[in-house]
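Fold this complex.
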Amino acid sequence: MKRRFADLHLQPNLNDAEQTRAMLAKASELGYRLVAVPLPTVSMETFAKKLAALCQENKLDFASRLDLKPKTSRELLQQLRRFRRRVEIIAVVCESKEVARQAAKDHRVDLLNFPATDPRRRFFDKAEAELASSSVAALEIDVKPIITLKGPARIRLLAVLRREAAIAEDYRVPVVVSSGATNPLQLRKPMEMAALATLFDLDKPTALDAVSKAPLTIVKKNREKLSPSFVAPGIRIIREGSDCP
Amino acid sequence: MKAKVRRRYLALKIDSREKIGQKEFMDVVWEAVLRLYGEYGASKTNLALIEYDAEQGAAVIRAAHTELDHVRAAIATITEIAAKPAAVHILTVSGTLKKLRKKLEYNFKP
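Structure:
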Protein backbone atom coordinates (compact mmCIF):
# COMPACT_ATOMS: atom_id res chain seq x y z
CA MET A 1 0.00 0.00 0.00
CA LYS A 2 1.21 3.50 -0.80
CA ARG A 3 2.52 5.40 2.21
CA ARG A 4 0.72 8.53 3.41
CA PHE A 5 3.02 11.22 4.69
CA ALA A 6 2.44 13.73 7.45
CA ASP A 7 4.18 16.85 8.68
CA LEU A 8 3.02 17.65 12.19
CA HIS A 9 4.96 20.87 12.61
CA LEU A 10 4.31 23.60 10.07
CA GLN A 11 4.83 26.99 11.68
CA PRO A 12 3.43 29.67 9.36
CA ASN A 13 2.65 33.12 10.71
CA LEU A 14 -1.09 32.64 11.23
CA ASN A 15 -1.70 36.39 10.95
CA ASP A 16 -0.28 36.30 7.42
CA ALA A 17 -2.99 34.54 5.42
CA GLU A 18 -0.99 34.61 2.20
CA GLN A 19 2.03 32.89 3.73
CA THR A 20 -0.15 30.30 5.46
CA ARG A 21 -1.92 29.55 2.18
CA ALA A 22 1.43 29.27 0.34
CA MET A 23 2.84 26.90 2.93
CA LEU A 24 -0.17 24.61 2.86
CA ALA A 25 -0.17 24.58 -0.95
CA LYS A 26 3.54 23.74 -0.94
CA ALA A 27 3.04 20.94 1.60
CA SER A 28 0.36 19.43 -0.62
CA GLU A 29 2.54 19.81 -3.73
CA LEU A 30 5.44 18.06 -1.97
CA GLY A 31 3.31 15.01 -1.25
CA TYR A 32 2.01 15.39 2.29
CA ARG A 33 -1.51 14.23 3.04
CA LEU A 34 -1.79 15.38 6.64
CA VAL A 35 -0.40 18.50 8.28
CA ALA A 36 -0.62 20.02 11.74
CA VAL A 37 -0.13 23.66 12.64
CA PRO A 38 0.37 24.85 16.23
CA LEU A 39 -2.58 27.01 17.22
CA PRO A 40 -2.51 30.02 19.54
CA THR A 41 -4.37 29.51 22.82
CA VAL A 42 -6.57 32.54 22.16
CA SER A 43 -9.28 32.11 19.49
CA MET A 44 -8.01 28.58 18.89
CA GLU A 45 -11.24 27.32 17.35
CA THR A 46 -11.44 30.20 14.86
CA PHE A 47 -7.91 29.58 13.59
CA ALA A 48 -8.56 25.82 13.49
CA LYS A 49 -11.64 26.32 11.30
CA LYS A 50 -9.78 28.66 8.93
CA LEU A 51 -6.85 26.27 8.62
CA ALA A 52 -9.12 23.29 8.10
CA ALA A 53 -10.83 25.13 5.23
CA LEU A 54 -7.48 26.08 3.67
CA CYS A 55 -6.28 22.49 4.00
CA GLN A 56 -9.42 21.19 2.34
CA GLU A 57 -8.76 23.52 -0.62
CA ASN A 58 -5.32 21.93 -0.93
CA LYS A 59 -6.56 18.35 -0.44
CA LEU A 60 -4.85 18.08 2.93
CA ASP A 61 -6.07 16.58 6.14
CA PHE A 62 -5.66 19.08 8.99
CA ALA A 63 -4.87 18.14 12.57
CA SER A 64 -5.10 20.75 15.29
CA ARG A 65 -2.04 21.04 17.47
CA LEU A 66 -1.08 23.00 20.54
CA ASP A 67 2.48 23.67 21.66
CA LEU A 68 2.69 24.04 25.41
CA LYS A 69 5.68 25.93 26.79
CA PRO A 70 5.25 25.71 30.56
CA LYS A 71 7.90 26.96 32.94
CA THR A 72 7.07 24.48 35.71
CA SER A 73 5.53 21.01 35.89
CA ARG A 74 2.57 22.47 37.81
CA GLU A 75 1.88 24.89 34.95
CA LEU A 76 2.10 21.97 32.49
CA LEU A 77 -0.54 20.00 34.42
CA GLN A 78 -2.86 23.02 34.50
CA GLN A 79 -2.48 23.56 30.75
CA LEU A 80 -3.05 19.88 30.01
CA ARG A 81 -6.27 19.87 32.05
CA ARG A 82 -7.42 22.97 30.18
CA PHE A 83 -6.56 22.06 26.60
CA ARG A 84 -6.30 18.27 26.19
CA ARG A 85 -9.89 17.75 25.03
CA ARG A 86 -9.76 20.71 22.64
CA VAL A 87 -6.96 19.73 20.24
CA GLU A 88 -5.84 16.59 18.44
CA ILE A 89 -2.13 16.88 19.19
CA ILE A 90 -0.44 18.21 22.30
CA ALA A 91 3.28 18.90 22.04
CA VAL A 92 5.35 20.04 24.98
CA VAL A 93 8.32 22.27 24.29
CA CYS A 94 10.72 21.12 26.99
CA GLU A 95 12.87 24.00 28.13
CA SER A 96 13.69 22.63 31.59
CA LYS A 97 14.40 19.19 32.97
CA GLU A 98 11.47 19.38 35.39
CA VAL A 99 9.01 20.02 32.56
CA ALA A 100 10.61 17.38 30.34
CA ARG A 101 10.22 14.70 33.02
CA GLN A 102 6.62 15.60 33.77
CA ALA A 103 5.75 15.69 30.06
CA ALA A 104 7.37 12.31 29.42
CA LYS A 105 5.37 10.54 32.10
CA ASP A 106 2.01 12.15 31.32
CA HIS A 107 -0.11 10.05 28.95
CA ARG A 108 -1.91 13.20 27.71
CA VAL A 109 1.26 14.43 26.00
CA ASP A 110 1.78 13.29 22.39
CA LEU A 111 5.05 14.89 21.39
CA LEU A 112 8.19 15.90 23.27
CA ASN A 113 9.98 18.70 21.49
CA PHE A 114 13.43 19.94 22.48
CA PRO A 115 14.02 23.25 20.72
CA ALA A 116 17.49 24.03 22.07
CA THR A 117 20.46 23.22 19.88
CA ASP A 118 22.79 23.44 22.87
CA PRO A 119 23.43 19.82 24.02
CA ARG A 120 23.30 20.83 27.69
CA ARG A 121 19.77 22.14 27.28
CA ARG A 122 18.35 19.01 25.66
CA PHE A 123 16.95 16.65 28.23
CA PHE A 124 16.17 13.49 26.26
CA ASP A 125 18.29 10.98 28.16
CA LYS A 126 17.69 7.40 29.29
CA ALA A 127 15.52 8.40 32.26
CA GLU A 128 13.37 10.58 30.00
CA ALA A 129 13.08 7.79 27.42
CA GLU A 130 12.05 5.27 30.06
CA LEU A 131 9.25 7.56 31.24
CA ALA A 132 8.18 8.29 27.64
CA SER A 133 8.09 4.61 26.73
CA SER A 134 5.72 3.83 29.59
CA SER A 135 3.38 6.65 28.56
CA VAL A 136 2.71 7.21 24.85
CA ALA A 137 4.79 10.29 24.10
CA ALA A 138 6.93 10.39 20.96
CA LEU A 139 10.14 12.29 20.40
CA GLU A 140 9.70 15.01 17.80
CA ILE A 141 12.73 16.09 15.81
CA ASP A 142 12.49 19.19 13.63
CA VAL A 143 14.67 19.28 10.50
CA LYS A 144 14.68 23.08 10.29
CA PRO A 145 17.81 23.50 12.45
CA ILE A 146 19.56 20.75 10.48
CA ILE A 147 19.10 22.61 7.21
CA THR A 148 19.63 26.13 8.54
CA LEU A 149 22.61 25.63 10.84
CA LYS A 150 26.08 25.43 9.36
CA GLY A 151 29.50 24.29 10.52
CA PRO A 152 30.24 23.41 14.17
CA ALA A 153 26.68 24.19 15.35
CA ARG A 154 25.25 21.60 12.94
CA ILE A 155 27.97 19.10 13.82
CA ARG A 156 27.08 19.39 17.53
CA LEU A 157 23.36 19.15 16.80
CA LEU A 158 23.76 16.01 14.65
CA ALA A 159 25.86 14.39 17.40
CA VAL A 160 23.15 15.09 19.99
CA LEU A 161 20.36 13.90 17.69
CA ARG A 162 22.28 10.70 16.98
CA ARG A 163 22.50 9.99 20.70
CA GLU A 164 18.82 10.83 21.26
CA ALA A 165 17.67 8.68 18.33
CA ALA A 166 19.70 5.72 19.65
CA ILE A 167 18.17 6.12 23.13
CA ALA A 168 14.68 6.38 21.62
CA GLU A 169 15.26 3.17 19.67
CA ASP A 170 16.56 1.33 22.76
CA TYR A 171 13.49 2.31 24.80
CA ARG A 172 11.06 1.95 21.88
CA VAL A 173 10.00 5.57 21.95
CA PRO A 174 8.54 6.49 18.55
CA VAL A 175 10.40 9.21 16.66
CA VAL A 176 8.45 11.75 14.62
CA VAL A 177 10.39 13.82 12.10
CA SER A 178 8.74 17.15 11.32
CA SER A 179 9.80 20.14 9.29
CA GLY A 180 9.36 22.94 11.85
CA ALA A 181 9.25 25.17 8.77
CA THR A 182 8.39 28.84 9.13
CA ASN A 183 8.31 29.56 5.38
CA PRO A 184 7.62 27.50 2.23
CA LEU A 185 11.31 27.30 1.27
CA GLN A 186 12.07 25.36 4.44
CA LEU A 187 9.68 22.55 3.47
CA ARG A 188 11.18 19.36 2.10
CA LYS A 189 9.67 16.31 0.41
CA PRO A 190 8.97 13.32 2.69
CA MET A 191 11.75 11.25 1.07
CA GLU A 192 14.19 14.11 1.65
CA MET A 193 13.07 14.35 5.29
CA ALA A 194 13.73 10.62 5.63
CA ALA A 195 17.15 11.09 4.02
CA LEU A 196 17.90 13.88 6.52
CA ALA A 197 16.84 11.54 9.33
CA THR A 198 19.52 9.08 8.23
CA LEU A 199 22.06 11.78 9.21
CA PHE A 200 21.34 10.92 12.82
CA ASP A 201 21.54 7.20 12.11
CA LEU A 202 17.89 6.27 11.77
CA ASP A 203 17.70 3.34 9.39
CA LYS A 204 15.67 3.84 6.21
CA PRO A 205 12.44 2.04 7.29
CA THR A 206 12.42 3.84 10.68
CA ALA A 207 13.13 7.17 8.97
CA LEU A 208 10.21 6.62 6.59
CA ASP A 209 7.96 5.61 9.50
CA ALA A 210 8.98 8.82 11.27
CA VAL A 211 7.34 10.86 8.51
CA SER A 212 4.39 8.57 7.88
CA LYS A 213 3.36 5.80 10.28
CA ALA A 214 4.39 7.40 13.60
CA PRO A 215 2.63 10.78 13.12
CA LEU A 216 -0.44 9.18 11.51
CA THR A 217 -0.80 6.75 14.42
CA ILE A 218 -0.79 9.63 16.92
CA VAL A 219 -3.48 11.53 15.02
CA LYS A 220 -5.63 8.43 14.50
CA LYS A 221 -5.46 7.47 18.17
CA ASN A 222 -6.33 10.98 19.35
CA ARG A 223 -9.21 11.37 16.91
CA GLU A 224 -10.65 8.16 18.28
CA LYS A 225 -10.26 9.47 21.83
CA LEU A 226 -11.88 12.80 20.99
CA SER A 227 -14.85 11.21 19.23
CA PRO A 228 -18.10 11.31 21.26
CA SER A 229 -18.40 7.50 21.15
CA PHE A 230 -15.09 6.96 22.98
CA VAL A 231 -15.37 5.56 26.50
CA ALA A 232 -11.93 4.16 27.31
CA PRO A 233 -9.09 2.61 25.26
CA GLY A 234 -10.66 -0.35 23.43
CA ILE A 235 -14.20 0.58 24.51
CA ARG A 236 -16.55 2.74 22.48
CA ILE A 237 -20.27 3.22 22.16
CA ILE A 238 -21.63 1.42 19.12
CA ARG A 239 -25.34 1.92 19.79
CA GLU A 240 -27.31 3.79 22.40
CA GLY A 241 -30.89 4.66 23.21
CA SER A 242 -33.93 2.70 22.07
CA ASP A 243 -32.09 0.50 19.53
CA CYS A 244 -30.00 -0.93 22.36
CA PRO A 245 -31.21 -4.36 23.60
CA MET B 1 35.85 -9.11 -11.97
CA LYS B 2 35.11 -5.42 -11.74
CA ALA B 3 31.55 -4.71 -10.63
CA LYS B 4 29.37 -2.75 -13.04
CA VAL B 5 29.03 0.91 -12.07
CA ARG B 6 25.40 1.58 -11.26
CA ARG B 7 24.09 5.11 -11.47
CA ARG B 8 21.01 7.02 -10.54
CA TYR B 9 19.64 9.99 -12.44
CA LEU B 10 17.87 12.60 -10.34
CA ALA B 11 15.43 15.15 -11.75
CA LEU B 12 15.59 18.29 -9.64
CA LYS B 13 13.36 21.34 -9.33
CA ILE B 14 14.88 24.59 -8.12
CA ASP B 15 12.48 26.55 -5.96
CA SER B 16 13.57 30.18 -6.10
CA ARG B 17 12.18 33.55 -7.16
CA GLU B 18 15.45 34.39 -8.92
CA LYS B 19 16.87 32.87 -12.09
CA ILE B 20 19.78 30.62 -11.14
CA GLY B 21 22.75 29.98 -13.43
CA GLN B 22 24.12 26.50 -14.14
CA LYS B 23 27.48 27.15 -12.47
CA GLU B 24 25.90 28.70 -9.39
CA PHE B 25 23.62 25.68 -9.10
CA MET B 26 26.35 23.05 -9.37
CA ASP B 27 28.58 25.01 -7.00
CA VAL B 28 25.90 24.95 -4.35
CA VAL B 29 25.23 21.22 -4.82
CA TRP B 30 28.94 20.42 -4.45
CA GLU B 31 29.21 22.71 -1.46
CA ALA B 32 26.28 20.97 0.25
CA VAL B 33 27.82 17.52 -0.35
CA LEU B 34 31.24 18.71 0.83
CA ARG B 35 29.84 20.30 3.99
CA LEU B 36 27.97 17.16 5.00
CA TYR B 37 30.33 14.38 3.92
CA GLY B 38 33.70 15.99 3.32
CA GLU B 39 36.00 15.48 0.34
CA TYR B 40 36.22 11.71 0.83
CA GLY B 41 32.43 11.32 0.89
CA ALA B 42 31.98 13.70 -2.04
CA SER B 43 34.48 11.71 -4.11
CA LYS B 44 32.27 8.62 -3.79
CA THR B 45 29.13 10.33 -5.09
CA ASN B 46 30.29 10.58 -8.75
CA LEU B 47 28.13 13.67 -9.13
CA ALA B 48 27.70 15.10 -12.60
CA LEU B 49 25.31 17.56 -14.18
CA ILE B 50 23.51 16.04 -17.16
CA GLU B 51 20.98 18.71 -18.11
CA TYR B 52 20.13 22.17 -16.89
CA ASP B 53 17.27 24.50 -17.75
CA ALA B 54 17.63 27.90 -16.08
CA GLU B 55 14.26 29.12 -17.41
CA GLN B 56 12.31 26.23 -15.93
CA GLY B 57 14.53 25.93 -12.87
CA ALA B 58 15.05 22.25 -13.62
CA ALA B 59 18.11 20.04 -13.66
CA VAL B 60 19.11 16.42 -14.10
CA ILE B 61 22.14 15.18 -12.20
CA ARG B 62 23.79 11.79 -12.00
CA ALA B 63 25.06 10.09 -8.84
CA ALA B 64 26.40 6.71 -7.77
CA HIS B 65 23.49 4.49 -6.74
CA THR B 66 25.14 3.60 -3.41
CA GLU B 67 25.31 7.27 -2.46
CA LEU B 68 21.75 8.20 -3.42
CA ASP B 69 20.59 8.81 0.17
CA HIS B 70 23.67 10.91 0.89
CA VAL B 71 23.06 13.04 -2.19
CA ARG B 72 19.38 13.34 -1.29
CA ALA B 73 20.24 14.54 2.24
CA ALA B 74 22.86 16.98 0.96
CA ILE B 75 20.45 18.45 -1.60
CA ALA B 76 17.84 18.87 1.15
CA THR B 77 20.23 21.07 3.13
CA ILE B 78 20.41 23.70 0.37
CA THR B 79 18.70 26.85 1.64
CA GLU B 80 20.23 29.48 -0.65
CA ILE B 81 21.83 29.73 -4.05
CA ALA B 82 24.13 32.66 -4.78
CA ALA B 83 23.01 34.31 -1.54
CA LYS B 84 19.35 34.16 -2.60
CA PRO B 85 16.82 32.08 -0.65
CA ALA B 86 16.12 28.83 -2.49
CA ALA B 87 15.32 25.15 -2.07
CA VAL B 88 15.98 22.19 -4.34
CA HIS B 89 13.50 19.33 -4.51
CA ILE B 90 14.04 15.91 -6.04
CA LEU B 91 11.16 15.24 -8.42
CA THR B 92 12.04 11.70 -9.34
CA VAL B 93 14.92 9.22 -9.48
CA SER B 94 15.67 6.59 -12.09
CA GLY B 95 18.39 4.23 -13.23
CA THR B 96 18.31 5.40 -16.85
CA LEU B 97 17.77 8.76 -18.49
CA LYS B 98 15.11 7.29 -20.77
CA LYS B 99 13.05 6.05 -17.83
CA LEU B 100 13.58 9.30 -15.95
CA ARG B 101 12.08 11.27 -18.83
CA LYS B 102 9.18 8.84 -19.05
CA LYS B 103 8.49 9.21 -15.32
CA LEU B 104 8.70 13.00 -15.55
CA GLU B 105 6.28 13.02 -18.46
CA TYR B 106 3.86 10.75 -16.63
CA ASN B 107 4.02 12.31 -13.16
CA PHE B 108 4.59 15.98 -13.84
CA LYS B 109 2.53 16.75 -16.92
CA PRO B 110 1.63 20.46 -16.98
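The two ends of chain B are 46 Å apart (CA to CA).
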